[in-house]
Amino acid sequence: MSFNRKVQRQKRHLRLRQHVAGTAARPRMSICVTNKNMYVQFID
């Protein structure tokens, strides 16, 4: 991976983490949808 792509990935990661923050009062929710089922996971 070139240096530029690494920098872009890090910036994207930081930008995403600003909006995706979980607390004990309001945990993060992860959803996985397959053809048969839907899985929901709550993460502290």
Biggest sheet strand order reads 1-2
Number of strands: 2
SSE topology string: HEE
Total of domains: 1
- Write down the overall mean pLDDT: 84
Distance between the termini: 32 Å
Radius of gyration: 15 Å
Structural class: alpha+beta
The amount of helix comes to 25-40%
Proportion of β residues? 25-35%
User: In one word, what is the shape?
Assistant: flat
* Biggest sheet architecture: 2 strands, antiparallel
> Which blocks of ≥5 consecutive residues have pLDDT under 50?
none
Number of helical runs?
1
Describe the fold and architecture.
- The chain is of the alpha+beta class.
- It is 39% helix and 27% strand.
- It has one helix at residues 3-19; strands at residues 28-33, 38-43.
- A two-stranded antiparallel ribbon has the order 1-2.
- The longest helix has 17 residues, at 3-19.
- The mean pLDDT is 84.
